[in-house]
Amino acid sequence: xxxxxxxxxxxxxxxxxxxxxxxxxxxxxxxxxxxxxxxxxxxxxxxxxxxxxxxxxxxxxxxxxxxxxxxxxxxxxxxxxxxxxxxxxxxxxxxxxxxxxxxxxxxxxxxxxxxxxxxxxxxxxxxxxxxxxxxxxxxxxxxxxxxxxxxxxxxxxxxxxxxxxxxxxxxxxxxxxxxxxxxxxxxxxxxxxxxxxxxxxxxxxxxxxxxxxxxxxxxxxxxxxxxxxxxxxxxxxxxxxxxxxxxxxxxxxxxxxxxxxxxxxxxxxxxxxxxxxxxxxxxxxxxxxxxxxxxxxxxxxxxxxxxxxxxxxxxxxxxx
Amino acid sequence: xxxxxxxxxxxxxxxxxxxxxxxxxxxxxxxxxxxxxxxxxxxxxxxxxxxxxxxxxxxxxxxxxxxxxxxxxxxxxxxxxxxxxxxxxxxxxxxxxxxxxxxxxxxxxxxxxxxxxxxxxxxxxxxxxxxxxxxxxxxxxxxxxxxxxxxxxxxxxxxxxxxxxxxxxxxxxxxxxxxxxxxxxxxxxxxxxxxxxxxxxxxxxxxxxxxxxxxxxxxxxxxxxxxxxxxxxxxxxxxxxxxxxxxxxxxxxxxxxxxxxxxxxxxxxxx
Lengths: 320, 271
Known about the structure:
By secondary structure, chain A is an alpha/beta fold. Chain A has two domains: 235 residues, Rossmann fold; 60 residues.
């Protein structure tokens, strides 16, 4: 049975705006329209899209916070907006910027409280705490009130809190935003491992393509409330025509470099930008440029997720 | 139903106990805040005492009788405030988006809001009200029949219940108007202040409003009239005077309906 099943789900909001002294005009915003997808147990899905595309609205409907305007959805066999408190035992949520922990409580107290609230058996709780403390390096933080934790520390604390009751599904909203490289990789490793060992199903929204590349077997792209792509990362690059960019600083300004397999997209004095397919190797390109020019410095820009989405969107404009 | 109530009560106790433990870890600050609340709350009674150095009766009531009214009102408000005083922070939680965190936990949002940052320092007000109440009982020469004695827990239970319902409704309004906690305060703290004095000092229209519109008189006025063996200035039938339990039940049903509608509104607008 699918862990998450979403069929033709829509969600619109009616906004009221003041127009004149007494009059108010209303207009309807379609945050999500006719969304359909299924997620199998153990899948890790990257859910991406520009700001305001409908990501949070979807997550809120999947957790039971928001009632959909139309369509059907089930998570772990429950209808979220009807059976919200039963579903709560089966899901974990990390809200990204906003902590779900108690601001004034030390982490340890928050966890003990969660144990009681979720009625986690003592043995299970001890085992999970031991695992999370080790993998997320929480030992030194347990006695610190949440408000005194750094963003990265707090995020680790929040993720442990979301997984403490062994949920089947976890929703992670921007789990690595603002984290340093070490924290990011530790967190990703932790999620990979939990996914492998427990078959955790995860949906994560992110702006960081590395998160997707390292964690997700599948990507869903939403834009203007519609699912515009659903497939694996390779297919996303293929559809989006993702390109990397070689930035070279030459010793002196020249005409745009002309090399087969790359387009010179921008020239600024001695600096030139050469776009090439993401799956191609940069080495022969660098060699080709070096053969004909004197390179002072170079760097490679990874494809930007927004860029990929924009390409998908312009490639297949939605009807209407 | 019973099972759910038990689960809610258990969750409430869990959350409240944890906040008590937190406040106890800052013991000095806890003591200062509690004593502070005791003193601030006691200040209005000091004002009444000062008043009575110049007068012998107010609205036909002696100092010890007014102390009885004052104590009853303060106790009921204090108990309700202790139980769910922080529910008025609902608006702030909605604005900050932290209500969502409560909505993904397996406990009713109402229980979580009631117990949120449970503040034992509110015992300050309760202690003060209790002391004034005890002193008035000592000073008054009440003929304690069984019926009069039974009216004391009656007063405290239904009086507190009425304030609980008003607190809840006031907070639930914030589902629509994010920052209206002052409006609710006018009815709770304001209502309690009015009920600290005998209704005979207010115009008849005001008493009627406080009986039929915002039924504050059922908190302590009618039960006190019976205990103190006084006549109702409105001359209402006994069935109305003893309507406290009915009023409390009606208000509770209404408050539950408003709260539920509020939650539904939030879940359909997400703001």
